[in-house]
Amino acid sequence: YQNLVLSRGYLATVSYFYFNWSGRLISGFVAFAGLGQPAAILLQIGLAVGAVFFAAFVFAAKTGRRGERLAWSLGLALWLPFLAFALTPDPYKSIYWSLAAAGYLPLLVFLPLYLFWLWRAVSGEICNPGLFGLAGAALVLLLTLTHEVASLPVVALTGAALLVPWIRKERDRRRWILLALVLLASLAGSAAAILAPGNFARQVAQAYPQSPGLFDLLGLNTRFALEYLAATLDGRNGLFLAAAFLAGWLSPRRAVQLR
How far, in Å, CA of 97 to CA of 138, rounded? Predict the structure, then answer.
């Protein structure tokens, strides 16, 4: 991979991979930028910690004492990114080489920020709708174009958020419009990631089997997801999940404690 960057150039290699190997455009930007940089992974983990801290601290704004907010936010920031790796059933197979880690870690950076955006979109104050909507669209594009596996869950998450103003019978049309536009952006990003020419070229090059069809594929994915969740609940991992409830109970927001 590094030889490709040296011979073709950075942007040309990113473009080459999108059209000839993978639809993970943002992953390519990040992974190829970090080639040969020993601190690249540490920088990404630092950004993930920073993103969790920012989202948690602002989420807890104007509630509780400042020291309480700071301690809770810092605790989550140091714990949640680690939890994503600690809960995996087989760490060796999940994070097995530096380039793969560099390509997947952006999800840990963008997801906390997008969850915070969704919370503000459904229940928070929206001061500048144009800028706020642009931020939401940018985040879903960054998430969906990082990895095709993340794309459809982001669409589902955004669609679920769109149900909140409907359940609440929200009269502020700005929330409806913002969430609908971001949902469209997530669909566009997912299409760009899943239908990328590189995915089909890679399927031919590596002789991947043909898809069994949409419904069979959904069934397989559901079964694999349930098996994965069962594996994360096995043994000592139950302690990590118990800690998630503890973190919620310690939240400066009383509503979060009850939920």
Answer: 28
